[in-house]
Amino acid sequence: MTRAARRTRILMAVAFSCVAVAAVVTAQTQSPPALTGTVTSHAEGAMEGVLVGARKTGSTIATWVVTNAQGEYRFLRERLEPGTYTIRIRAVGYKTAPASVDVTPHGARLDLPLEKVTRATELGMQLSNTEWLASVPGTPGQKLALSGCVNCHTLQRVLFSRFNAEEMAQVVQRMRRHTNNSSLLHPWMRPADDFPHGPPTAAQIDFGKYLSTINLSGRDTFEFPLKTLPRPTGKATEVMYTVYELPRPDASPHDTVFDSQGNLWYSDFNSQFIGKLDLKTGKVVDYVVPQSRGLQTAQGGLQIDVDRDGKLYFGNMFQMALVRFDPKTETFEAHKLPMPESAYGDGHLTMIDPAFQHLDGKLWVNVAYDTGTAGGTWQVDLASNKWTQVKYPPGSPSARAYDVVANSKNDMYGIGLTVDKIWVTNGKTLETVWYDLPTKGPGCRRGHVDAKDRLWCGVFQGNRVAMFDPQTKKITEWKVPTEWTRPYDAEFDDRGSLWTAGMDGDLAVRLNVETGEFTEYLLPHRTNVRSVRVQKSGGVSSLWLGDQHGNTITRIEPLAP
User: Fold this and answer.
1) Shared domain check, 426 and 318
2) Residue 4 is inside which H or E element, if any?
């Protein structure tokens, strides 16, 4: 059974836990809505592309829809049961008074008048990271450096600061010490020995000077125009969203995966948890992952995946452990590299792919690193605890992976942020072959295989998505429409559509591979997306995203092919 076929079986079970497939949704739109209304403003009249959200009092689940060309929104009866709902909107450049509505068995109506924001600082609080990067002055290199700040927080944190050049250089120096899985609530630090005490470097001073020219130091408003993306139109308004709030305020869902019972599991990037979300009720059960290293070591993990037997695997980052969890017994096993911790350096175990270990008992693991000897790609046999580090002949191209993905033969596809190649490592011989991306420069960040063993991935810094076809040995690329989308991950739905998203634009992006048509779905709130998970069952595929900077998981359901 291929990885895609296995996941299709799992996602078919998920479909029964979710509310409707597209065919059902089409029928539902003909029935009277539970809640409807029109969104207007003095500036525009009826407003297309405004997101409207409804959340029932006491619930952890919110439903969102988008206004059509006539400014109308409608919530299906099957999505809003009777009760009192708090209403929210998302429309950059506009605001509305707090609103609530009582939805009865006969439905309800609520018209929403919006008012334009007038101050630049008020507008600035609404901007996505993409809009900030499009707005601020600076060289491409300066903007690229600024974009690195979104690993841990939004750009509002930088732009609304009042630090002068000297102070900002010290902030830049301190930020370098934080791990890449830090957050405002969990500001993990790298070992002090890796960062000797001393004044900021020349590069840190220069970057601090640049930041002090675009923040609010010495001024009370922004001295450059704030650029906003257009609101959704047409097909991009034909969509519904379901937002699940996780109970821990500090929850930071990085990756998601479905099990065969229709539950969604997530990895927590900042804390020692994995979580299970019941899609019917919204109930969440968190499981504490035992620590493998000292208390001062950064906690949290990156990839979570499931094998054919339903066991979960978790890349436990700076704990440097591959963790396996059995949902039946609710027990954990931690497997560590067979070498002393002194060899770890700053290594962090990020990616795991157990999809085809039933073929030969082996799975693939990646350890990201700058120092130490533990870094690189490993083939692991957990039964014998044998870890084999993949080696490359002298003179080989770089094989510094960000993601490792197994195909149906349990060979490994490697992709890397700074490697403009895709490489394939044979699972039996560990020999590697490299293939050049058509556009030189940045490489892929995360990816998934489809039923034909094709690898689909997000070319993060290149603002593209790519597909490697193992039959033709060719790589095809598509450039996404909005600059600074920075696709982080990509997954094909086996029906003609590719999905992607990134850390900056608050956009879920769908590509019709045959026609080249892109549809960009604006998300209900700021969403720092690291991984995408496509639900392939039903008439139209849907997308699931965790917000790594917030405690929510969102489902995006298109209503049109």
Assistant:
1) yes
2) helix 3-17
The count of structural domains within the chain is 2
Burial of 274 (C-beta count, 10 Å sphere; 0-12/13-18/19+): buried
What sign for the dihedral angle of Cα 472, 474, 479, 485? positive
Residue 390 pLDDT class (50, 70, 90 cuts): very high
Is 335 found in the same domain as 210? Answer: no
Average pLDDT (426-443) is 97
Alpha-helix runs per DSSP H in 18-164: 22-28, 120-124, 129-135, 140-147, 156-159
CATH of residue 387's domain is 2.130.10.10
Domain that holds residue 187: 137-214
- Under 8 Å CB-to-CB from 369, ≥6 apart: which residues? 345, 346, 347, 348, 375, 376
Given 214, 249, 265, which residue is the final one in a domain? 214
- CA nearest neighbour of 317 among 515, 180, 460: 180
pLDDT score, position 30: 59
- How far, CA to CA in Å, does 38 sit from each of 56, 78, 283? 20, 20, 33
pLDDT tens-digit map of 225-260: 999 999 999 999 999 999 999 999 999 999 999 998
Per-residue pLDDT tens over the stretch 323-343: 999 999 999 999 999 899 989
CA distances from 433 to 64, 376, 413 (A): 46, 16, 10
Dihedral over Cα of 182, 185, 186, 187: its sign: positive
In Å, what is the CA distance from 358 to each residue of 22, 309, 312, 393, 425?
A: 34, 9, 14, 29, 18
Which of 11, 28, 490 is closest to 240 using CA atoms? 28
DSSP 289: P
Identify the band that residue 193 occupies on the pLDDT scale cut at 50, 70 and 90: low
CA 442 to chain centre: 19
- Residue 484 Rama label (left phi>0; alpha psi -120 to 50; beta): left
Same domain, 411 and 508: yes
- 483 close to 470: Cβ distance less than 8 angstroms: no
Q: Is residue 273, in this structure, part of any structural domain at all?
A: no
For β-strands 497-502 and 507-512, DSSP reports them as antiparallel
Write the CA distances from 174 to 198, 204, 211, 369, 385, integer angstroms.
11, 10, 15, 20, 39
- Single residue among 214, 229, 260 that ends a domain in this structure: 214
Tokens encoding 378: 């490993």
Q: What is the CA radius of gyration of the chain?
A: 24
Q: Answer yes or no: do 300 and 403 share one domain.
A: yes
Q: Are strands 108-109 and 35-41 parallel, antiparallel or unpaired?
A: parallel
Q: How far is CA 272 from CA 292, 325, 328, 532, in A?
A: 10, 13, 20, 21
**How many other CB atoms are there within 10 angstroms of residue 322's CB atom?**
26
CB-based contacts of 47, cutoff 8 Å, min separation 6 = 39, 40, 41, 67, 71, 91, 94, 114, 231
Rounded Cα distance, 343 and 337, in Å: 10
Nearest-angstrom CA–CA distance, 289 and 273: 5
